[in-house]
């Protein structure tokens, strides 16, 4: 025996699996058994006594199961029967009467309770002094449909309910005897009884009852009025209700079941205030789909799909928020349906976990939505009514649905049902090169739609937004690649694809919020904890382990694990969170959970949770599974007190044109005026183009202006790395000379841009006693991370990098990805991204460390514009660490928001830098000329293979020594270069050359 099993999630209420029912009235069929069942109870012993008399039709083979029951005696046509050893039941052929006397013991009703992904299913029954709840394996069950006649004797203060059009009762010596009459065949029956308070009403000739426990009797009025409302609505939308009565029954067990003529709802569920607006209507809808028209489960369970569409989805549509419900369907599919859990919709029979629910309920509901969109609303409901009237009390299949819609619409729909029922997966759509154009004098929007994999035939809605408003279009898609040109109003600004989520498709990255369902549905999911917190989160860890999460001690977590997984991190102070998001703030009281996109892999999520106590964590843990659509949750004592979902794009959104911005040169500011405005800023960031001398002159102008005004400040420079700060300080103090300074800081190895571009700044700082701070990280570390990620670092190198980093700036990530396109094939963007964040974080930490020591100082920061533009690279990170306000000056790059001030210095010729015109190989510890270009060395007679040993008296071993030796050379000077040249036969001879420039 089976029934409609409805799933009650705190914020998502949909129904579970329904098993097969066979043909009944309205057409020729095989004869059905007639089943008379009488039961009584010993509540103190949790015992049921039963007598079943089953009249079996002629020439029909019948299977009767007695699994879970104790058979006291059995006979067929008066002859004793014995069960086959090891079998639970009987197989009989031929007509006659099978009588079985039996007993069964029932505990607390929770035996084999479903997991957290299958809430609402209770595998056992309940018989005790609180009441009776029997919804499975409580009587010998026949295979298929039968006509049932049930008599149940219960305590006099109990009221009993079962499937029935008529219920009568009378007092007997042993209690109160209830008789249930139901003239229609069903594939099983149920029985509940307790000390209920009964209330009665009527709607359109149907008797409506409510049965609540005394403590919840006040709920009756609300449930009664909402039940009447739903019956009026569905009588108009569908066909008249087929039965004489309907009951809302409260259950002691945490069930959500729907049977013919009643629904059985758990006590915790009925007390939720929103249930009357959601799942009550859902259960009433099942009276038509599942309890009036049955499903042929051999060809798939369509009942859950249509019930979800005509209840939960319909209620949201009536509020104007159907698009949100449909988007949630697509989110759940994306979150839960991994390749190993995917299957065609036609193979769906019942819900077993979140993935099967996303297919059978979500994808199925979307199929009916697309079907309504295809044939029109009027034809849709005509087809549904035809389906019901032609299949009442019999099994109907997807083929029957197809036939009904084809008859009413006049369309051939085999292609539609085939692609949506028989294929795994859903369409994955990509829009390429959307643009606004003027063709033959008329505005046009062009785009290419690409389907990944085998193409679907789709009607894809698009909207074009212009100054006049929004215009909808529909693209007929049926190929892997299709190009479209759409007429538009003047100045089309934006293209939005499938804004209302009318197509079952894979969500794009910008539409997909970081939500709990993505955490729960991940293929690889880790729960990360520290040893100090293991005890507090022990219950939570155990519960999530049961759902496939692998526990990992934070000290054992690798960056490769973060990149390949979704994570639940326990504790807001975890060092993993510092590495990913820098500072996540302080947790609020109780239990708090936050979900964010994984900065190292946006396809995954990172969630972090904090609890005040073990009790708070344990109470919240099982409830998290029912809040899949949220990004932020908070509980106190197990009660939800806050929930939020991060906003994302509605539809696939593409900008077609942006307003052109300009500046009015007459009203522009001179640099002196800008300096006057920014002089009090604690941090002044200047974004440079490294090879543009004019940008460095701007930097020097700002520095000299602040110096003249007596400001106390330091200069932070990207160009030098932190390990060499000692040599910068010694040069500024005059302890070493400039050449030694360049040698010791390895400037020409590590930065390589022409030193003469920065020389004036450093000389000015030395002359005026202005501190210079090396901001950058050791380049070996950055290169190592760019190649192999943070996991490539040694333990010593890890000690050198920042403990806290913010990797979650999506706009910065997008800009870096554009820059990355120019990298060689085979390079890994995620590693590049980590290296860039590490670079920026190190510079921000260097700034913070200096200002922490020198609290009365300002700092002027010189760095590449990409590290400063839009405040993303260094500025916001420095603000996070110091709390000091900043201003940004960007040279030569204009865009809204690029900086506080944009500067346009006129191009200036850089200072003269002497160059030999040679290419050097210094890997052997000797500066060997590999090649020459036209220039001083070639003109002086130097050749390939010559080994340069000195330049102007400066000893040369590597390229940087040549550059240091040429440092002070003027254009009209001659430079002495010594070299070794290989002799024809033996050894090398010393050569001297005079080079002029």
Topology (SSEs and partners):
Elements: E1 4-8, E2 13-15, E3 34-42, E4 47-56, E5 61-65, E6 70-76, E7 79-80, E8 89-93, E9 96-105, E10 126-128, E11 131-134, E12 141-142, E13 147-154, E14 159-161, E15 166-172, E16 175-181, E17 191-194, E18 197-203, E19 206-212, H1 220-237, E20 245-251, E21 256-259, E22 262-266, H2 267-270, H3 279-285, E23 294-295, H4 303-318, H5 322-336, H6 354-375, H7 377-389, E24 395-396, H8 398-409, H9 414-421, E25 429-439, E26 442-451, E27 458-466, E28 469-477, E29 481-487, E30 494-497, H10 516-521, E31 525-529, H11 538-545, E32 550-553, H12 559-564, E33 566-570, H13 575-581, E34 591-597, E35 605-611, H14 614-620, E36 632-636, E37 639-644, E38 652-655, H15 671-678, E39 683-688, H16 693-708, E40 713-721, H17 725-733, H18 738-744, H19 747-750, H20 756-768, E41 772-776, H21 779-788, H22 795-800, H23 810-820, H24 829-853, E42 858-864, H25 875-882, E43 886-891, E44 901-903, E45 918-921, E46 927-932, H26 936-940, E47 947-951, E48 954-955, H27 959-965, E49 974-982, E50 988-996
Parallel strand pairs: 3-13, 19-20, 20-22, 23-24, 31-32, 31-33, 33-35, 39-42, 39-43, 40-41, 40-42, 43-44
Antiparallel strand pairs: 1-2, 1-21, 3-4, 4-9, 5-8, 5-12, 6-7, 6-9, 10-11, 11-17, 13-16, 14-17, 15-16, 18-19, 21-22, 25-26, 26-29, 27-28, 27-30, 30-38, 34-35, 34-36, 36-37, 45-46, 46-47, 47-48, 47-49, 49-50
Helix pairs in contact: 1-3, 3-4, 4-5, 4-6, 5-6, 6-7, 7-8, 16-20, 17-18, 21-24, 23-24, 24-25
């Amino acid at each position: 025996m089976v029934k409609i099993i409805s799933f009650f999630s705190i914020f998502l209420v949909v129904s579970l699996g329904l098993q097969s029912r066979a043909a009944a009235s309205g057409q020729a069929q095989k004869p059905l058994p007639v089943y008379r069942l009488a039961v009584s109870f010993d509540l103190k012993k949790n015992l049921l006594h039963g007598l079943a008399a089953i009249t079996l039709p002629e020439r029909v083979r019948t299977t009767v199961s007695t699994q879970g029951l104790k058979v006291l005696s059995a006979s067929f046509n008066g002859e004793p029967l014995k069960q086959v050893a090891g079998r639970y039941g009987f197989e009989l052929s031929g007509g006659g009467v099978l009588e079985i006397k039996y007993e069964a013991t029932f505990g607390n009703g929770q035996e084999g309770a479903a997991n957290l992904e299958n809430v609402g299913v209770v595998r056992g029954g309940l018989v005790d002094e609180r009441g009776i709840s029997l919804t499975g394996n409580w009587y010998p069950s026949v295979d298929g449909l039968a006509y049932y006649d049930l008599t149940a004797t219960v305590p006099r203060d109990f009221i009993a309910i079962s499937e029935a059009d008529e219920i009568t009762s009378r007092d007997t010596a042993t209690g109160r005897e209830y008789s249930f009459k139901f003239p229609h065949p069903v594939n099983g029956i149920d029985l509940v009884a307790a000390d209920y308070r009964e209330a009665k009403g009527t709607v359109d000739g149907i008797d409506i009852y409510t049965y609540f426990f005394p403590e919840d009797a006040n709920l009756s009025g609300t449930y009664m009025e909402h039940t009447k409302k739903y019956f009026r609505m569905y009588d108009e939308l569908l066909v008249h209700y087929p039965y004489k009565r309907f009951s809302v029954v409260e259950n002691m067990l945490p069930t959500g079941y729907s049977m013919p003529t009643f629904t059985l709802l758990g006590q915790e569920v009925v007390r939720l205030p929103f249930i009357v607006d959601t799942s009550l209507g859902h259960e009433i809808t099942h009276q038509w789909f599942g309890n009036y028209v049955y499903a042929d489960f051999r060809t798939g369970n369509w009942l859950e799909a249509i019930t979800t569409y005509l209840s939960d989805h319909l209620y949201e549509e009536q509020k104007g928020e159907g698009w949100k419900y449909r988007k949630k369907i697509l989110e759940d599919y994306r979150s839960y349906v991994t390749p190993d859990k995917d299957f065609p919709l036609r193979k769906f029979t019942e819900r077993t976990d979140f993935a099967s629910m996303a297919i059978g309920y979500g994808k199925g509901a979307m199929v009916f939505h697309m079907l309504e969109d295809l044939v029109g609303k009027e034809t849709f409901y005509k087809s549904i009514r035809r389906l019901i009237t032609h299949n009442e009390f019999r099994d109907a299949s997807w083929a029957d649905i197809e036939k009904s819609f084809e008859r009413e619409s006049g369309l051939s729909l085999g292609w539609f049902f085939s692609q949506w029922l028989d294929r795994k997966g859903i369409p994955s759509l990509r829009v390429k090169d959307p643009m606004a154009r003027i063709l033959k004098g008329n505005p046009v929007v062009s785009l290419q739609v690409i389907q990944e994999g085998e193409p679907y035939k789709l009607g894809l809605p698009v909207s074009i937004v212009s100054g006049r408003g929004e215009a909808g279009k529909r693209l007929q898609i049926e190929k892997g690649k299709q190009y479209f040109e759409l007429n538009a109003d003047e100045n089309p600004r934006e293209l939005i694809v499938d804004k209302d989520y009318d197509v079952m498709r894979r969500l794009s990255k910008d539409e997909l919020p970081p939500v709990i369902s993505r955490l729960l549905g991940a293929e690889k999911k880790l729960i990360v904890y520290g040893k100090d917190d293991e005890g507090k989160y022990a219950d939570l860890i155990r519960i999530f382990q049961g759902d496939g999460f692998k526990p990992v001690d934070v000290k054992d977590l690798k960056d490769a694990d973060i990149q390949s997984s979704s994570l639940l991190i326990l504790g807001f102070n975890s060092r993993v969170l510092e590495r990913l998001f820098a500072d996540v703030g302080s947790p609020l009281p109780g239990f708090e959970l936050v979900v964010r996109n994984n900065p190292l892999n946006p396809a995954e999520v990172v969630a972090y949770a904090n609890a005040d106590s073990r009790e708070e964590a344990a109470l919240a843990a099982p409830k998290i599974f029912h809040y899949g659509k949220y990004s932020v949750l908070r509980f106190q004592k197990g009660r939800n007190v806050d929930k939020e979902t991060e906003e994302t794009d509605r539809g696939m959104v593409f900008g077609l044109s942006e307003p052109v911005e300009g500046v009015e040169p007459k009203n522009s500011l001179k640099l002196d005026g800008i300096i006057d405005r920014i002089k009090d800023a604690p941090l002044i960031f200047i974004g440079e183009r490294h090879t543009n001398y004019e940008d460095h002159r701007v930097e020097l102008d700002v520095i000299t202006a602040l110096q003249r005004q007596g400001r106390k400040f330091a200069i932070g420079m990207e160009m030098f790395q932190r390990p060499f700060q000692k040599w910068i300080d010694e040069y500024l103090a005059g302890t070493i000379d400039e050449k030694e300074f360049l040698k010791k800081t390895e400037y020409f190895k590590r930065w390589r841009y022409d030193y003469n571009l920065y020389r004036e700044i450093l000389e000015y700082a030395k002359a005026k006693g202005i501190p210079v701070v090396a901001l950058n990280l050791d380049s070996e570390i950055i290169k190592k991370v760019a190649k192999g990620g943070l996991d490539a670092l040694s333990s010593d190198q890890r000690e050198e990098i920042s403990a806290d980093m913010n990797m979650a700036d999506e706009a910065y990530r997008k800009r870096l990805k554009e820059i990355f396109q120019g990298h060689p094939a085979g390079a890994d963007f995620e590693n590049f991204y980590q290296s860039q964040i590490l670079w920026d974080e190190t510079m921000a930490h260097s700034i913070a460390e200096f200002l922490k020591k020198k609290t009365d100082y300002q700092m002027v920061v010189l760095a590449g514009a990409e590290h400063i533009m839009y405040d993303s690279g260094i500025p916001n990170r420095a603000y996070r660490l110091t709390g000091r306000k900043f201003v940004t000056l960007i040279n030569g790059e204009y865009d809204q928001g690029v900086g506080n001030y944009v500067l346009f210095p006129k191009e200036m010729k850089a200072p003269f830098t002497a160059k030999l015109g040679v290419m050097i190989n210094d890997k052997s510890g000797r500066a060997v000329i590999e090649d020459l270009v036209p220039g001083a060395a070639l003109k002086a007679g130097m050749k390939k293979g010559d080994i340069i040993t000195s330049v102007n008296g400066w000893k040369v071993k590597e390229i940087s020594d040549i550059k240091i030796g040429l440092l002070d050379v003027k254009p009209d000077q001659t430079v002495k270069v010594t070299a070794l040249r290989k002799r024809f036969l033996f050894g090398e001879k010393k050569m001297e050359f005079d080079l002029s420039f």
